[in-house]
Automatic annotation (TrEMBL):
Protein name (Swiss-Prot/TrEMBL): D-xylulose reductase
A Pfam family matched in the record: ADH_N
PROSITE patterns with a match to the protein in the record: ADH_ZINC (PS00059)
Species: Colletotrichum asianum
InterPro entries: ADH-like_C (IPR013149), ADH-like_N (IPR013154), ADH_Zn_CS (IPR002328), ER (IPR020843), GroES-like_sf (IPR011032), NAD(P)-bd_dom_sf (IPR036291)
Associated pathway: Carbohydrate degradation; L-arabinose degradation via L-arabinitol; D-xylulose 5-phosphate from L-arabinose (fungal route): step 4/5
Amino acid sequence: MADLLPYSNRSVVWAGVRKLEIRQQPIRVPNDDEVLVEVITTSICGSDCHNWDSPNVFRELILGHESAGLIKTIGKNVTDRFVGQCVAIEPGFSCRECEFCGRGKQNICSRLKYYGMDPTDGTLSQYFTCRASNTVPIPEDVSWEEAGSIQPLAIAVQVARRASLNPSQSLAIFGCGPLGLPILAVAKAYGVKKIVMFDIEESRTRFAESYGADVGIVTPRNSDPSQDILSFSQHYAREVIAKYGLGYGFDVAIEASGAKICATMAICMLKAGGTCIQAGLGRPMASLPLFLITANELDVKGTVRYTHGCFEDAISLLSTKKVDLKPLITSTYPLTQANEAFEAQHARRDIKIVIFNQM
């Protein structure tokens, strides 16, 4: 099989802080249970940008993990995939043996590895070898730009599962960025009756409204140094709830920015018995209003990555046109301009950037 491998495999390699190099890398021959994927598109994730900007990457790593492509070669034991098939690549591969995997919680596997995260090379290459079970078939009517963005949509599906989103609910989402907007799209697809989006940038709240939010609100900054975060958040929550006729508050609040104050605001926005989902990756330590959580019997949950079936659900939402990711993809770059793509993503000039791996 080795003599049938493609001759070129340009890859995006981290070579230092904010320094990427395009290098020819060897293509690993698939084993009996693996496939070789000709990677067509890869979208840039915040964690990719973090690695790009970090001095703590300990080797010259190939970045990228949100990818899709065409199967080029299959191992002899692979019977449910075929050459030429369109697939998304699931970047997380669990041990399938630990307590968490046994409970269907592969996203918190005790030995979880992730493509593009040290020590495992990622998918920003022309070709990528992986387990066949880490590929998910995609209908041909899904565009390549959207196909490369399925993983963040799968994460949004997991958030929706954790929140048990349904048509009877009102929903507040904090953060109109690459995480909050796919969550909005999934919430709309699930029929959530009222969705209010919050962000500190007016351009982003306007975009959220154009993308389907009922209301986009620019979150004010606390300019009074004598007012603590909780008092400020409670006062602001009362104003929002009264202005938009939300009765006792929101049924669900999803924090998708990672900002400390938004975690407090999300809890303050909830009615008694409501649910808060912490989806944004914030600082290691933050204070939360424990009295409100206890007295109002709030459910506060974390969420990370995705679980079994989230990729399939995300693909179904795209193929049935219940979700349209194309408005979120604001720029595309060839693989040879990866440095420029990462600079643009880091500068927050775009919502989502997609790289075409074969260009």
